[in-house]
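ok, trying the design again with the full structure, not the truncated one.
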């Protein structure tokens, strides 16, 4: 078992804020286990942990680090029925989602999450299903444009999608260079890492069904939480954060009557509250120590106590 300070493991993002949100919890779900950093900190507080990850390599690393005492493991995407069933049976009072790609996945070129030269266009977190290359080589230009715009905030998504289709007719996309060259052809030779990151991020989200999965999982996690429990979500992408924010706002509504109805007749009750109202973000010291934390936003929803 690896010592907590082992440099081979990355420091979890917004750890102090996550532990503050979990204060008083007895059973916590880490639905994106990764290297197990958040899970290790939760378990050190005496919390029983259910760790979920679709990446078999992540499950193996976390088990090597944490062992089997006080923690259970589920190899599954957190939005899949097997994972959601396990969460319901676990009856948690704290659930954590740390979205996006783990630093280790990003650093492993063979996984294809990076735009470093020669990396395969894979991007599958589980190692199963359609790859990014498959998507680039088969999707119509309208679908590629939607993915690039909605998931990558790429303003020139339509011409980029058309360029991808034009290039794949000559030669299939296989490695990162193929997509980088298509991006440069549309955005110009001065296109740089920020431009590449938008498109690579968009493809990763599409390949792994990340936003749709998040939308399915959030209501299920809230339903599984014990009264007074907390759901904490760390996002790194505007689409993820927007989805979480809107879902939390919907849960806070204590009336679902039509807006113009003069008297409330729905007898609805708010499901809880976001705390705090605005997202928690890393401070300058954390960003300096871990630059990949710079875009992180943590939102917390506290489920209402039983009536």
């Amino acid at each position: 078992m690896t010592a907590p300070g082992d440099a081979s493991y990355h420091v979890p993002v917004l750890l102090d804020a996550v532990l503050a949100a979990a204060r008083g919890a007895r059973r916590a779900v880490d639905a994106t286990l990764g290297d197990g950093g958040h899970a290790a900190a939760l378990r050190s507080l005496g919390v029983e942990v259910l760790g979920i990850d679709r990446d078999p390599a992540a499950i193996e690393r976390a088990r090597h680090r944490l062992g089997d005492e006080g923690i259970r493991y589920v190899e599954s995407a957190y939005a899949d029925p097997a994972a959601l069933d396990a969460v319901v049976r676990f009856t948690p009072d704290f659930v954590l989602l740390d979205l996006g790609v783990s630093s280790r996945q990003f650093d492993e070129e063979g996984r294809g999450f990076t735009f470093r030269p020669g990396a395969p266009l894979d991007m599958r977190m589980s190692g199963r299903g359609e790859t990014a290359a498959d998507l680039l080589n088969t999707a119509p230009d309208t679908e590629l444009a939607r993915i690039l715009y909605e998931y990558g905030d790429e303003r020139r998504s339509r011409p980029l999608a058309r360029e991808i289709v034009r290039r794949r007719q000559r030669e299939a996309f296989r490695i990162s260079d193929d997509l980088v060259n298509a991006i440069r052809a549309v955005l110009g030779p001065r296109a740089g890492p920020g431009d590449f990151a938008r498109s690579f991020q968009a493809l990763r989200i599409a390949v792994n069904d990340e936003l749709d999965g998040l939308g399915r999982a959030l209501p299920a996690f809230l339903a599984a939480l014990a009264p007074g429990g907390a759901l904490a979500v760390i996002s790194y992408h505007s689409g993820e954060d927007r989805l979480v924010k809107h879902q939390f706002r919907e849960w806070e509504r204590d009336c679902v009557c039509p807006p113009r109805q003069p008297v409330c007749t729905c007898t609805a009750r708010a499901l809880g509250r976001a705390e705090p109202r605005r997202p928690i973000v890393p401070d300058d010291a954390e960003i300096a120590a871990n630059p990949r934390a710079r875009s992180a936003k943590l939102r917390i929803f506290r489920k209402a106590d039983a009536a």
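Keeping the full-length input from now on. The first strand starts at residue 27 and ends at 30.
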